[in-house]
Amino acid sequence: MHELGVVFHIIDQVEEVAKDNDVSSVSKIILQLGEVSTVIPEYLTDCFVWARAKHELIREAELEIETIPAITRCGGCGRTYGTVKYGKICPYCGSDRTWLEQGSEFMIKEIEAV
Ligand SMILES: [Zn+2]
Predict the structure, then answer these.
(1) How far is the CA of 89 from the centre of ligand 1 (A)?
(2) Cα(99) to centroid of ligand 1, in Å?
């Protein structure tokens, strides 16, 4: 399961930050998740709840997920548009020279300690 690997990755990062900052218990983890990232928030939350019970540091932590909207930029006309709605073809000029400007990211935005 992909999301479980992601959760382990998050826990690794949280543990590292906690160690650097002398934190023994984390109360909240805020994640930023791109709209077109491959991670499914519901699965991620389920995996997190499962993993949380096994880690003292995050046993009380809640996971908050912020969605970053996916935006594609067009190399033909230079405009941007919503990726989920229009996909790879620019709705303004029909060009397929487009690239994802944001929306695939996955990162920890904030960790709150008790
Ligand atoms: Zn265009």
Answers:
(1) 8
(2) 11
